[in-house]
Amino acid sequence: MSLFSELKMAVPWGHIATKAWGSPKGTPVLCLHGWLDNANTFDTLIPLLPRDFYYVAMDFGGHGLSSHYSPGLPYRYQNFVGEIRRVSAALKWDRFSIMGHSFGGTVGGMFACMFPEMVDKLILLDSTPFALDSNELENLLTYKRKALEHTLLLEQAAKEPSRVLSPEEMLQRFLKNNSHVGEPCGKLLLQRGATQVPTGLVLNRDRRIALPEHTFDFISKELCEHAIKKLQAHVLLIKATEGFYDVRREKDSDKGPLLFMTDTLKSALGERFQYVEVPGNHYVHMNQPDHVASVVGSFLQSGNRIPASP
């Protein structure tokens, strides 16, 4: 299933770009990429998945081929959650499954708790449904301040042209900043994440999007427990053995937040929750898609759909 089609959904600030595999008559699966990535993150995995599904991978606003937000409109976590609702409405999907990598998993997780009747299955690829505030209380106000200062600084520099790099220089910089991405996958992400200009390449992403902690909503353990109890979906969490455990990498040795969330998911969902560890790093779904394809495929094909509303 290597053939795909490009789709654009109109939104007030422009469009959301998506790429789709399979027949629109198939069971729908919305695929959500990670921080600063784009829909090409699923290029190596989706061809290995069952063909009786309709996979639509979207570029979040300001990423890939999607429009940048309007001037003055900040990139906030809840805005990305809202983009899922916009795309599902444009596709006329009342109920669908979500597969999210990293940041895409946290956005999809929040959506599945806010709109529980709409999500059949939630697949988290080296991700968790939320980012917890338990390690972050002393930093939360600083993050909000820095996010605002960063935006104002970029607005002042808005007339400066985007930096142009040679394809090789851009690839090497990308790989240096994304140590878990192999070179072939780096090239794939840049195919959609950069645009050719006469003197080289420029990145497509909005420069207002910087550090994930400036955008994430960090929630309390109490809200996490409450939200997870709202889930109607079956949940599969695939943890890469060499993956990440925290939004901020300097906290990555602390597995406490992940353990809390997996324990909460087990307690609330029982047999509706599955946890699988696979060998690989944070981009295992892209670097070694065969490590996750059979697990994801079996989960999607299992006959556990939430009952239709009367």
Defining key terms:
single chain, 310 residues, alpha/beta, Rossmann fold, two-stranded parallel sheet, 9 helices, 12 strands, 23% strand, disordered C terminus
Can you lay out the helices and strands and say which pair or pack?
Blueprint (H helix, E strand, L loop, with lengths): L3 E8 L2 E8 L5 E6 L20 E6 L18 H14 L5 E6 L1 H12 L4 E7 L5 E2 L7 H17 L10 H11 L5 H11 E4 L2 E4 L14 E2 L1 H10 L3 E9 L13 H14 L3 E9 L2 H4 L2 H12 L9
Parallel strand pairs: 3-4, 3-5, 5-6, 6-11, 7-10, 11-12
Antiparallel strand pairs: 1-2, 2-4, 8-9
Provide a descriptive summary of the structure in words.
By secondary structure, this protein is of the alpha/beta class. It is globular and about 55 Å long. The relative contact order is 0.15. The chain has nine helices and twelve strands.
| CATH fold annotation | Rossmann fold
Helical segment count: 9
The sequence of SSEs as H and E is EEEEHEHEEHHHEEEHEHEHH
**Helix/strand-derived class?**
alpha/beta
For the record, the CATH architecture stands as 3-Layer(aba) Sandwich
- Show unreliable segments: 306-310
Q: What do we call the CATH homologous superfamily?
A: Alpha/Beta hydrolase fold, catalytic domain
* Tally of strands: 12
Helical fraction:
25-40%
Largest sheet: 8 strands, mixed
Number of separate structural domains: 1
Mind telling me the C-alpha Rg?
Answer: 19 Å
Percentage of residues in strands: 15-25%
CATH class: Alpha Beta
In order across it, which strands form the biggest sheet? 1-2-4-3-5-6-11-12
Distance between the termini: 35 Å
Shape category: globular
Average of pLDDT: 91
GO cellular component, one term: membrane
GO molecular function, one term: hydrolase activity
Organism: Pipistrellus kuhlii
Keywords: Hydrolase
